[in-house]
């Protein structure tokens, strides 16, 4: 969840740390901090709030080439200065930043207090610093101290650490939380994802669980259980470089409007003009499978529901599980072959990773669908498919959702070798562009509902799955309480919540449910709720609010969801919210 950066022998250290933290602050923005060695002293600056505040605090030049930085999504301890990272150890031997959650930190803290250690924060991070500090008091060996600490500490951690005023080495350790090394020219880097390093590092090293070591200006040493580990270099997509707003006021708006281009890029990556380009071995695994089980969280879970529908259309049994549930109540099909599909924009969602570990142990094949090359879920799966959507910066996912749905559409069509689906997906882009051209109309609706306290979304069939995603978007960034229901469920409870003026959004993209959903609209209107209907032309009636051209029923979610994405965006804008960084949320949820 938190973001980590670090560098050794970095000529533009201040700029690297601050720009790096800005590129990572989608991972958390409760506080920010840096530490660096200047004139043989460790300087530390920490602020509660955004990286911009840290930038003000660091207005002067920094005479240092080694440093670490952190953006925090608070888990242990409120966002107060004392709880910001970096944290120093009791003897000031170590200064570190951390991402993850230490499960036995209270127990460890109690032990350390008994041994005379005092604490200045409520964080589990300070406990890590002090466990390593205590080991160092005995061993006087940094690497051995980290190794020993890893044996004592339970939980997830990615740390970057400065040792006393050693200007030559930056130490690290990794378990469950993501951390990778970037190799530059006479400078080496550490970060919790590739984004902050993409402009300065020409290759990367992905760290595995329980590895630790150090980077120096021209060397990398990685160990596990005191044994030195060999490593491989990897690369990242150049599209990570496209992180400018390009004139847009917010990333969310930019990312919604990139959707048609994402669709075309997906087609180019998975279809060569004659046949699909998915791995033959993977397609065979799906053809041979009796059951396909999806595991995902949040928006990716909603995309998976549509994936289930696509698999059922090609006569495959499919399940969709919420990762944080399945991880505690794992279920494997007792008969036949079951392939698991992990859907995750970031590829780093801790709950999905926990499930992946159980599935691998059980021996099933896995496919990861992700936007993040080199992410943990991408590396650990039997097969992986990238979304090629370009980096998504706004916390509320938009283009990645559309890319997930489109990829699942392509995949299921590839399994049954139906290339006519490509034409349909290409034509669908015309309607997606039409939605973009209608954004002013959607903005008018947003302005009407901006002061609502509650909102409801209704749909049936695929439209219901889109309603779930539309409702999530609205609540994430507008803070309006919102729920989604299958139309038929309305009268089994939710109707009790509809009052005069309560906005109820309804989607109709399939003739077979038009009459039924219109019946639900009437029920809402009879209670003086306000219905806003988003429909396709063939289902349109006088008074519908947004009418888009007809499209293939299976692809309708791609267009309808964009209406809901715009609705959330403009409503949040009207409420003056911080659209790209909604309160209490983070984009990459690397804690369970
Ligand atoms: C967080 C984000 C959501 C995202 C979910 C799953 O909650 O705020 O936008 O849908 O995590 O993330 P993933 O990276 O696994 O798709």
Task: Give me the secondary-structure topology.
Elements: E1 3-8, H1 13-24, E2 31-38, E3 41-48, H2 51-57, E4 67-72, E5 87-88, E6 94-99, H3 105-114, H4 124-139, H5 142-152, E7 157-163, E8 170-175, E9 180-183, E10 188-191, E11 203-206, E12 211-215, E13 220-224, E14 227-228, H6 251-257, H7 259-270, H8 280-288, E15 291-296, H9 298-313, E16 317-322, H10 323-326, E17 338-344, H11 350-362, E18 366-370, H12 376-380, E19 383-386, H13 399-415, H14 420-437, H15 439-449, E20 454-459, H16 462-478, E21 481-486, E22 503-508, H17 511-526, E23 530-536, E24 546-548, H18 556-574
Parallel strand pairs: 15-16, 15-17, 17-18, 18-19, 20-21, 20-22, 22-23, 23-24
Antiparallel strand pairs: 1-4, 1-10, 2-3, 2-4, 5-6, 6-7, 7-8, 8-12, 9-10, 9-11, 12-13, 13-14
Helix pairs in contact: 3-4, 4-5, 7-13, 7-14, 9-13, 9-16, 14-18, 15-18, 16-18
The protein binds 6-O-phosphono-alpha-D-glucopyranose.
Residues 297-300, 344-346, 349, 352, 395-397, 585, 587-589 line the site of 6-O-phosphono-alpha-D-glucopyranose.
What can you tell me about this protein's structure?
This protein is α/β, with parallel strands linked by helices and 592 residues long. It is built from 18 helices and 24 strands. The protein has a 7-stranded antiparallel beta sheet, covered by helices on one side. The radius of gyration is 25 Å and the shape is globular. The termini are close together. The relative contact order is 0.09. The mean pLDDT is 94. The structure holds 6-O-phosphono-alpha-D-glucopyranose. Residues 297-300, 344-346, 349, 352, 395-397, 585, 587-589 line the site of 6-O-phosphono-alpha-D-glucopyranose.
């Amino acid at each position: 969840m938190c973001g980590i950066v670090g560098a050794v022998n970095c000529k533009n250290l201040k700029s690297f740390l601050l720009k790096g933290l800005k590129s990572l602050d989608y991972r958390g923005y409760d506080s920010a901090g840096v530490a660096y060695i200047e004139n043989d002293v460790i300087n530390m600056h920490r602020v509660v709030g955004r990286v911009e505040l840290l930038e003000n605090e660091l207005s002067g030049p920094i005479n240092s080439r080694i440093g670490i930085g952190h953006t925090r999504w608070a888990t242990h301890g409120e966002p107060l200065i004392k709880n910001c990272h970096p944290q120093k150890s009791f003897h000031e031997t170590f200064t570190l930043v951390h991402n993850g959650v230490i499960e036995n930190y209270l127990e460890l803290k109690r032990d350390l207090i008994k041994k005379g250690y005092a604490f200045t924060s409520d964080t589990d991070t300070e406990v890590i610093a002090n466990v390593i500090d205590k080991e160092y008091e005995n061993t006087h060996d940094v690497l051995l101290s980290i190794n020993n600490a890893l044996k004592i500490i339970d939980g997830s951690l990615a740390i970057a650490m400065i040792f006393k005023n050693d200007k030559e080495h930056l130490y690290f350790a990794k378990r469950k939380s993501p951390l990778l090394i970037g190799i530059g020219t006479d400078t080496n880097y550490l970060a919790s994802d590739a984004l902050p390093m993409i402009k300065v590092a020409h290759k990367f090293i992905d760290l595995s669980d329980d590895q630790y070591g150090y980077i120096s200006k021209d060397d990398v040493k990685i160990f596990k259980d005191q044994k030195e580990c060999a490593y491989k270099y990897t690369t990242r997509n150049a599209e990570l470089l496209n992180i400018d707003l390009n004139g847009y006021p917010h990333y969310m708006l930019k990312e919604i409007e990139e959707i048609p281009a994402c669709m075309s890029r997906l087609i180019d990556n998975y279809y060569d003009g004659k046949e699909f380009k998915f791995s033959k071995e993977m397609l065979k695994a799906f053809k041979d499978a009796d059951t396909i089980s999806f595991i995902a969280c949040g928006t990716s879970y909603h995309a998976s529901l549509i994936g289930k529908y696509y698999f059922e259309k090609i006569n495959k049994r499919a399940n969709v599980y919420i990762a944080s549930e399945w991880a505690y109540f794992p279920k494997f099909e007792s008969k036949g072959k079951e392939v698991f599909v992990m859907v995750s924009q970031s590829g780093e969602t801790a709950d999905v990773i926990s499930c992946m570990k159980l599935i691998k142990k059980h021996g099933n094949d896995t496919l990861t669908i992700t936007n993040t090359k080199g992410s943990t879920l991408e590396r650990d799966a039997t097969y992986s498919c990238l979304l090629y959507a370009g980096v998504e910066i706004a916390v509320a996912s938009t283009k990645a959702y559309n890319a997930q749905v489109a990829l699942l559409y392509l995949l299921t069509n590839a399994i049954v070798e139906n290339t006519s689906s490509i034409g349909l997906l290409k034509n669908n882009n015309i309607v997606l562009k039409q939605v973009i051209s209608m954004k002013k109309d959607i903005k008018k609706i947003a302005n009407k509902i901006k002061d609502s306290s509650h909102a409801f979304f209704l749909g049936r069939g695929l439209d219901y799955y889109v309603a779930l995603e539309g409702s999530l978007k609205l609540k994430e960034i507008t803070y309006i309480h919102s729920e989604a229901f299958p139309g038929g469920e309305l009268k089994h409870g939710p109707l009790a919540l509809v009052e005069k003026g309560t906005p109820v959004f309804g989607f109709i993209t399939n003739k077979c449910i038009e009459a039924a959903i219109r019946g639900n609209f009437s029920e809402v209107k009879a209670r003086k709720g306000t219905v806003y209907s988003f429909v396709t032309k063939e289902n349109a009636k006088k008074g519908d609010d947004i009418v888009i051209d007809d499209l293939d029923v299976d692809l309708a979610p791609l267009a309808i969801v964009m209406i809901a994405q715009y609705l959330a965006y403009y409503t949040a804008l009207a409420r003056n919210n911080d659209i790209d960084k909604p309160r209490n949320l983070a984009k990459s949820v690397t804690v369970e």
